[in-house]
Amino acid sequence: MYIFQSPLIPPIGLLPFSASVFDQIGGKDPVSAHLCYVAFMFVLTYLVSVLSWHVLEKHFLRLKRYFKAS
Asked: Does Membrane count among this protein's keywords (predicted)?
């Protein structure tokens, strides 16, 4: 997850609707809007990391059987 979190922040910030959506969900309270943003980024990061696991990582880990541990 730590690999994907930082690269996801700039594209989400560039979306024209992102700030207004979090402000609408959180109301006038900036803390609530920030918590909505944090929750959204957590879910997005988690989904991207699960996708990465299923698409790449588990297949590469299967190759371990062909290499001896040192």
From this structure: yes
